[in-house]
Amino acid sequence: MQRREAVKMIMAMLGTSLSPSLLGALESTASRLPRGQFTDGQRRQITMMSERIIPTTDTPGAIAAGVPEFVERIVFQWYTDTERKIFLQGLQLSDQYSQQQMGHLFVDLNVEQQDVVLSQMELQGGAKPLFGGIDLMPQLSEDRSAFFPKLKELVVVGYYTSEIGATEELRYVAMPMEYKGDIPLSEVGRSWSNSGFLD
Questions:
Q1: H-type alpha helices, 28-80
Q2: Which residues contact 90 (CB under 8 A, 6 or more apart)?
Q3: Is residue 65 part of a domain?
Q4: Which of the residues 56, 135, 141, 159 has the least number of beta carbons within 10 Å of its own beta carbon?
């Protein structure tokens, strides 16, 4: 599958267009110098969040597909300063929420509790704070898109543009149709037409 086709498919899955920074990264063949990296704690948090969004089932999940590394690369090589600030602040606020509501940091929660936190973050995508006065959507004037939609976009795009996502989770078929040059009329019952109604 060509990258452009993969991007179109992912946009259809998300039901929206991709952010300009991510689209630029996918369409570019050039690399950029990283402007930092996640701390060990942030990397663990992203790893666990990614795996909860696309868990291992009968096919490999986000970790096996290298999604956490993809997220880090986009955040520190392609995101604008504002996008990066939203993302890093979102990680911090999700930990604050986890601590306040569950008594532990996100990485120390069990998977059911992690799913609750992620569900609340998704609900908070454009809403006012739901619990405890913690706003999981940073109000930055330059860019008001929330942390969780950014995370979800990165996880889904990272997964389905990986070899695992494109060939194991999706059923990759190099030529999805079979050409039959000679089909007996008895098999199809009638001839095919490639034109509309005649005037």
A1: 40-53, 67-77
A2: 121, 136, 138, 146, 147, 148, 150, 151
A3: yes
A4: 141
Q: What is the pLDDT of residues 177-197, one digit of tens each?
A: 566 667 776 776 655 544 444
The conformation of residue 106, written as its DSSP 8-state character, comes to G
The torsion defined by the Cα of 99, 102, 106 and 110, in degrees rounded to 10, comes to 160
* Digit-coded pLDDT (tens) for 49-79: 999 999 999 899 999 999 999 999 999 999 9
Q: What is the domain range of residue 38?
A: 3-176
Structural domain contains residue 77:
yes
Q: For residue 100, what are the CA distances in angstroms to 89, 104, 116, 131?
A: 16, 8, 13, 9
In a domain, 182, yes or no: no
- How many separate domains does the chain show? 1
The alpha carbon torsion through 151, 12, 178, 187 (nearest 10 deg) reads 130
- Please classify residue 10 by burial: count the beta carbons closer than 10 Å to its beta carbon, then call 0-12 exposed, 13-18 middle and 19+ buried: buried
Do 169 and 35 meet the contact criterion of CB atoms below 8 Å apart?
A: no
